[in-house]
Amino acid sequence: MPMLSKSLRIDPTRLDPVREFFANPIGRHGAELDAILSVLRAGPIAGKYCLICTRPHQEWRIGRLSGRRGEAPVIEDNRVFASIADAERAVFRLRWFAETGVPLDEDEFRA
Asked: Exposed site from 40, 56, 66, 111, fewest CB < 10 Å?
């Protein structure tokens, strides 16, 4: 079965699920948001954004997966998150942009 084009996989104009995620990044989500998260979490492992816990329950950073067994993720930038929820929001933004090519407005989508 052929893959859908990115424009069909996620409609970047449908922002209600994005608002739902930013309001509650951890926990249960509605069906539409679950479908979006499935798309954002799918695909090739190599280069995928991930979270790296650098201090248990205290500090997270954004990394990228190598896609090669035994090779650790590489820290992507200098941002350090004191909240897992804030870290999840940051990874969501990056994966959303990678999938749709549309950035999420920083002012509209805050915690």
From this structure: 56
Residues 27-36 pLDDT 10s: 999 999 999 9
pLDDT the model gives residue 11? 92
Cα separation, 18 vs 1, whole angstroms: 28
* Whether 70 contacts 52, CB under 8 Å: no
Please name which of 104, 100, 98 lies closest in space to residue 49, comparing C-alpha atoms: 98
Quickly count: other Cβ atoms within 10 Å of residue 94's Cβ.
Answer: 19
Q: Which residues pair with 53 in a beta bridge?
A: 60
Q: What whole-number distance in Å separates Cα of residue 23 and Cα of residue 91?
A: 15
Task: Quick: pLDDT tens for 44-103.
Answer: 999 999 999 999 999 999 999 999 999 999 999 899 999 999 999 999 999 999 999 999
Q: Round to whole Å and give the CA distance between 60 and 84.
A: 7
Could you identify the residue written with the tokens 């989500």?
Answer: 29
- Could you give the CA distance from residue 45 to residue 65 in angstroms, rounded to a whole number? 6
